[in-house]
């Protein structure tokens, strides 16, 4: 995100000076967008860097939630920018200010080209909430540049000054809709809701297709980040000897079909309310069988420590 950050920050200064020189609120609001864009890109870079940190004893899942928190901050920042623009636009409608239309069109056109380039760079990257939040800022700025061009053209050819603040309010409303949608997704992740692209009932059905599985209960699915999903559940078996086969099949199916990377499953025999025999944990491509932790089952088999790599148990 370094190149987009440099492009946005550099042109924000140019556009702010141009907005002050021409008297255009559309340009000044667009410059405000670009300043917030630069800040958003800086936060996005920081969030991505922190999210790649490995897991520690204090943070067992790593710091992947950092990108979600950064997306939340960026969404709130965008709301603040929108409020500021709308407030200034209302003041301008009540008291129109002179605007130099031709200069506004030229500066806004250059800004539009810069934003198209930055949006293309960001769109070609990852689609996490973090990068989407940064892209939302840039797209809002791109629309702001288009609005500034239209406002400059109307003022240049007709001299009607209120078009500048009116279009600024219009573009702010459009950005508000996208920002609120993103904010809703971020809060859904932070509240550990079931990922929006998954159906918990469909996942449960897929886990009980095998005739060796009698049922699934205590099923929980949540997002560690916008790109990593976790699942935990109790699996009721016909026969405990089938567990390693069932575990491998379920882990493979959940990863391939639903893209769930971190899976924790507990096998049980009998009814859905039987006492737990042991905990089995699958983390992406490796599975650990902590059979030595089974309560009341301390034979030789219970002390076996099994590692499954990929989909083949060793």
From TrEMBL:
Membrane topology summary: Multi-pass membrane protein
SUPFAM superfamilies linked to this entry: Cation efflux protein cytoplasmic domain-like, Cation efflux protein transmembrane domain-like
Keywords, ordered alphabetically: Ion transport, Membrane, Transmembrane, Transmembrane helix, Transport, Zinc, Zinc transport
Region listing for Disordered, in residue ranges: 289-314
Entry-linked Pfam families: Cation_efflux (PF01545), ZT_dimer (PF16916)
UniProt xrefs under NCBIfam families: CDF
The family this protein is said to belong to: Belongs to the cation diffusion facilitator (CDF) transporter (TC 2.A.4) family. SLC30A subfamily.
Protein name per its UniProtKB record: Cation diffusion facilitator family transporter
